[in-house]
């Protein structure tokens, strides 16, 4: 049910005690990692974590369409997950900690900030969404063990909840994550555009028409190199430089492959690893 992936480095964020209220943005998020005065926020340190939205994907015959939706509000059933996934990778590359306040959602950006209210007892908690799921019984969110404890439904397993994205906080988190990854918000929207607008700056020895699995494009070389090293187990992995609107990007690609079927096989492996933005490109 859960897609697992990778390691990068980022430091974050939220601890909120049910029933408490906050009076400022700093009491919602502290990107410096410092505990703010008179708040219930603690730094969460994790190995990894990147900002991502992801491509449409299909699970158990149902298609899901991740997107940035800062007006999102939904009422439905929440479940929780704990020890079976503890210390494993989440869909955006963090390490899942069942004792932190995080959650899995099927389509919201990773990470984003949501407020979840248990409609059966009125308790609320603020969570960081960093994983994908749930996919069973039309449940709308899967919450960490700690979150379920605070919301008061750990023993019963599920609860009827309202999930609301916190738009301002989520957008601040996105900006901080992209800065950490070395990607500007403008550049991030350019990555993935038609390659008709991309200027090739690296000579290649492969023949025209060969296919690659592209796992990502970054303005920061170290970020690209880290991903390249972690994906090398799937085949010959390289970094190819390009320019988009005058900005240099480092594309991480696996290949080349002569046939679509070979490339698709590797693409499935890379997406199972948790890189939902991976795609096949032809040169």
Key terms for this structure?
18% helix; disordered N terminus; 30% strand; Alpha-Beta Plaits; 2 domains; 283 residues; elongated; Barwin-like endoglucanases; alpha+beta; 5 helices
What is the string of helix and strand elements? Answer: EEEEEEEEEHEHHEEHEEHE
Arrangement of strands in the largest sheet:
5-9-6-8-7-10
Radius of gyration from the CA trace? 20 Å
CATH architecture of the largest domain: Beta Barrel
Structural class: alpha+beta
CATH class of the largest domain: Mainly Beta
Sheet with the most strands? Answer: 6 strands, mixed, barrel
- Estimate percent helicity: 10-25%
Quickly count the helices.
Answer: 5
Q: List segments where confidence is low: pLDDT < 50 over at least 5 consecutive residues.
A: 1-47, 186-205
CATH topology of the largest domain: Barwin-like endoglucanases
Oligomer: single chain
Q: Give the count of structural domains.
A: 2
CATH H-level homologous superfamily name of the largest domain = RlpA-like domain
How many strands in all? Answer: 15
Task: Give the strand content.
Answer: 25-35%
What is the 3D shape?
A: elongated
Whole-number mean pLDDT: 75
What's the N-to-C terminus distance?
35 Å
